[in-house]
Specification:
The complex is a heterodimer. Chain A is an alpha+beta fold. Chain A is 23% helix and 35% strand. The chains are: A alpha+beta, B alpha+beta. At the A-B interface, β2, β3, α2, β6 and β16 of A face β1, β2, β3, α4 and β5 of B.
């Protein structure tokens, strides 16, 4: 596994070369992918790479650099490059590393790594993909074609050190299985997919179930109609509701807040959503993908209630955006190796309600059940919302027929206030 | 150029003998074809926010990807270390895909024919940082000076220089040096305590720094971004329903990219999962439409001397007078479909397997006067600029979001509208094109296309066109 000492070494080198503060992120990963199509193996990919990212401060000036060369010479160049570029940036009174009192790491096993992922051999991985695709192809005679199925696995590690004394590292594993069948009936051709991903192989959904659900999703889109323009209640399924959460994240991201580039800027403490809406960002739940012991600035992660029964209770912040707003970091610093420090979310979720999706559908006379959203028509500055959609039309409390080539439009402000019920299927 | 004079020969001492031995290793378990893609990428980016140059990043990544093709199968591995033992190891991993004797005759290497579409002596990232940082400072000043209602400006400048070497078991060797630079300006404007509105403008290409000093200056992009934000201050909600849509010239060409381009990529058609599968020779657009994908336009963002599989790029006719003529091929698809190369095999980096991708996709100019196109429209929507778009290639349904559009009332462009999404179906949408303007314009050079997790730079272009029927999604019934 990657050596956190290498990150400390880069930090020391930066300080010795004139930086007043420095932090270094190391990342290492091995990726594997097996994809099959029409019951035979199509692609095998197996490789690994490493990288280092460095951020230095010259007083209040910041510069960043990255490299894939972790040799001594590579680190030397990494440091020189960051210092060179820091020299041309402007002094920024809010720039700087977190206060030492804010640094730290969650204790205990967060279950981010499971060795069962690497114990599954190549043939087993291929077989899993074959089985998932077969389940989809066998589900119905109208499943006539397939874009394939794939099994992906990843093992990696991350290390971080800064000049305020923080050193930490953690390992991660993940695997996923997906299937994308194509259904055909007359002139109508539709594809859809289903997948499962987990940090442990033992937690993956079975290939048979993934294939069957993917087939069901493709089949139910066949013979879709357009519907005339109208105002109706809309239900977002699990997948599309998730995209609404990423819109909310964009709007509470500290960067959009301090720039006043969000419809939620300045609304802390105000009622912005229906009373049944509680949204939480929690990076401390063991075994999940949004979990980590510390954020990308070395601050321990935590549970932050973003919307509390309809009231905006917190933004999501890193050190810089917190200082700009006169607040404390929420442990949401994020950065890739090659990019800038920014804000990211952990496990961001809408707290579940009490009614099953079926009950919610039964309560609607006429409406739309959305299963797919496409396009980029969400403006989180103004809240304007207009996206391409496909789904199922609800008539008299039942899913009646598929609809596609439609758009749904409103504003996020209105949509949040109008959330009437939340499913129990979190 | 001899390999010994090339970037990888000079900097890493790679010889033809090395390349041959890696390819031999890759084909050691059998297979029909193998290739190596060496990449060295240096990037830098600068951005200004609140008039402070807050972030500046530079860095380098390098590696080699090894691919083996055996029938319809592909084996792929890469290494971020160019030492011979690491490359051999990657070759052996990629080789695992094949079983049986290799069907490759050794030939030795010959350099591919190559164009010289971006003969830039000094790439932007080889100039001084101070000169580049001045670009974002100028953009910031210009956007703020444009109108007092502008209250936030973010300007960014990013460049890269990519050195590539491709060697394959057909004996083809090719080198390329691929510069790229791009500027972008984002602006927020507000009237009193009203809702802020945003505007964005950007551009660039495979150009030298001069481009931003002489041709498209920071002030040009700044004014355009500020203008768009100011226009939005008076915007009314978008109409909803089916109506006539007039697309302005340039970036609205993204319609072709989404509605047609993706559906014509040969991988989807080989698998028969595209709405355009088996439709060559059929009428898929109005006879006024001729759509081209051309990777050979000088200095354009989507252009390449050779594609990422070492094949020279070309000008390819996709739709001719409304009739579907051809698909876009990568190596694998052209081998399996026995079709000639079109120079469209592209990948994001050495860590990625090539796929058929677009380069610069545009519609040829027609004969109509753009003003006449608007005058002939009693009621409709005029779209001047778009945000992003997306397509489901199987059903053919696509959407894209207009970032600057106006109502057309009685043949005149009137009020600006906000948040309009256009939706249509690929093989159907262009059948309703009833007028094509004489004003073909290519976009400014900001396009990024995503497919299966890989991003590549692309260009689009279109003259003013009139589409008689298209669904617009807005909030105003």
């Amino acid at each position: 596994m990657i050596d956190a000492e290498l990150a400390s070494k880069a930090v020391r080198l930066a300080l010795d070369s004139g930086a007043s503060d420095a932090e270094c992120t190391l990342s290492e990963g091995e990726e594997f992918s097996a994809s099959v199509r029409m019951r035979s193996l199509e692609t095998l990919k197996d490789a690994g790479s490493r990288g280092a990212g460095l951020r230095v401060l010259l007083g209040r000036q910041v510069g960043s650099s990255y490299t894939s060369d972790l040799s001594s010479e590579g680190l030397r160049k990494l440091v020189d490059s960051a210092l060179e570029i820091a020299a041309i940036s402007t002094e920024d009174p809010h720039a700087g590393l977190p206060d030492p009192s804010e640094l730290g790491s969650l204790a205990g096993d967060l279950q981010l790594y499971s060795d069962d992922v690497s114990r599954v051999d190549t043939q087993q991985r291929i077989d899993q993909a074959l089985e998932a695709e077969d389940a989809a192809l066998s589900a119905d005679p109208r499943i006539t074609n397939s874009e394939g199925a794939s099994f992906d696995a990843y093992n990696g590690a991350r290390a971080f050190a800064n000049s305020r004394g923080f050193v930490g590292s953690y390992r991660m594993s993940s695997c996923s299985l997906s299937a994308t069948p194509v259904a055909r009936q007359g002139e109508s051709m539709e594809r859809d997919y289903w997948y499962s991903y987990a940090r442990s192989y033992a937690k993956l959904e079975s290939p048979a179930s993934i294939g069957r659900r993917a087939a069901e999703r493709a089949l139910r889109r066949l013979g879709s109609r357009k519907v005339p323009t109208q105002k109706v209640p809309v239900i977002f399924d699990q997948l599309t509701a998730r995209s609404l959460l990423s819109n909310i994240f964009e709007a509470v991201d500290g960067e959009s807040i301090y720039r006043k580039a969000s419809f939620l800027a300045g609304k802390l403490g105000e009622r912005i959503a229906s009373e049944n809406v509680t949204i939480i960002d929690d990076s401390t739940i063991p075994g999940l993908f949004g979990t980590s012991p510390f954020d990308d600035e070395g601050v321990p992660t935590r549970r932050t209630v973003v919307i509390d029964r309809g009231v905006l209770s917190s933004y999501l912040l890193n050190t810089y955006t917190a200082r700009k707003l006169g607040l404390r970091t929420t442990g949401n610093a994020a950065r890739g190796i090659t990019g800038n420090a920014s804000v990211g979310h952990g496990n961001l979720f809408l707290q579940k309600g009490e009614r099953s999706p079926q009950e919610i559908i039964r309560g609607i006379g006429k409406g739309l059940y959305v299963t797919e959203l496409i396009g980029s028509g969400v403006n989180t500055v103004t809240g304007d919302y207009s996206r391409g959609a496909a789904g199922l039309w609800i008539e008299n409390g039942e899913l009646a027929y598929p609809v596609s080539e439609i758009t749904i439009a409103s504003t996020l402000q209105q949509m949040l206030m109008d959330i009437a019920s939340i499913g129990s299927d979190l | 150029m001899a390999l010994s004079d090339s970037f990888f020969g000079q900097k890493f001492g790679i010889t033809e003998h090395d390349l041959q031995s890696y390819l031999d290793e890759a084909l050691s378990a059998g297979g029909d074809y193998a290739d190596l893609y060496f990449e060295y990428l240096a990037t830098s980016s600068l951005s200004i926010d609140e008039s402070i140059v807050k972030s500046a990043v530079q860095g380098v990544s390098l590696g080699v990807g090894v691919r083996v093709i055996a029938g319809e199968r592909t084996g792929y591995a890469y290494s971020d270390d160019l030492s011979p033992d690491k490359i051999r190891r990657a070759s052996r991993v990629a080789a695992c895909i094949a079983k049986g004797p290799a069907k490759v005759d050794k030939t030795g290497f010959e350099e591919a024919n190559k164009r010289d579409l971006y003969p830039i002596l000094q790439a932007p990232n080889e100039t001084s940082l101070t000169e580049r940082v001045e670009l974002v400072k100028r953009a910031d000043r210009a956007a703020r000076a444009y109108d007092s209602r502008v209250f936030q400006v973010q300007a960014s400048y990013a460049d890269s220089l990519r050195q590539v070497l491709v060697a394959n078991s057909d004996g083809v060797l090719s080198f390329d040096r691929q510069p790229m630079a791009r500027m972008g300006v984002g602006v927020l404007a507000r009237q009193g305590d009203g809702t802020p509105q945003r505007g964005y403008s950007g551009g660039g290409g495979r150009v030298a720094l001069d481009f931003f000093l002489n041709e498209k200056t920071p002030e040009y992009f700044a004014h355009e971004a500020a203008r768009q934000a100011i226009v939005q201050l008076d915007a009314v909600p978008a109409p909803a329903g089916e109506m006539t849509v007039v697309l302005g010239p340039g970036w609205p060409g993204i319609l072709l990219h989404e509605a047609v381009g993706h559906g014509l990529e040969a991988d989807f058609n080989r698998k028969k999962v595209s709405a355009f599968s088996d439709r060559i020779g059929q009428q898929v657009a109005s006879p006024l439409c001729t759509v081209i994908d051309d990777g050979t336009i000088r200095n354009r963002r989507g252009s390449l001397n050779v594609d990422d599989e070492g094949a020279p790029t070309q000008k390819n006719v996709l739709i001719e007078k409304g009739v579907l003529r051809g698909y876009l091929f990568d190596k694998l698809s052209s081998r399996l479909l026995h079709a000639g190369a079109t120079g469209n095999g592209r990948r994001e980096s050495y860590q990625h397997i090539p796929m058929p991708r677009m380069t610069n996709t545009f519609m040829l100019a027609g004969e109509s006067d753009p003003d006449e196109i608007v005058r002939s429209t009693p009621r409709g929507l005029y779209c001047a600029n778009f945000g992003g778009g997306q397509v489901d290639i199987t059903s053919g349904n696509f959407v894209f979001s207009a970032s600057e559009s106006y109502l057309i009332e009685d043949g005149h462009i009137t009020r600006p509208v906000r948040g309009a999404t256009l939706i249509g179906n690929g093989p159907e949408a262009l059948k309703y094109v009833s007028m094509v303007g004489n004003d073909l314009k290519l976009d400014e050079g900001v396009g990024i296309c995503g497919k299966e997790g890989q991003s590549v730079p692309v260009g689009v272009g279109i003259p003013t066109i009139k589409v008689d029927r298209m669904t617009v999604g807005g909030t105003s019934g």
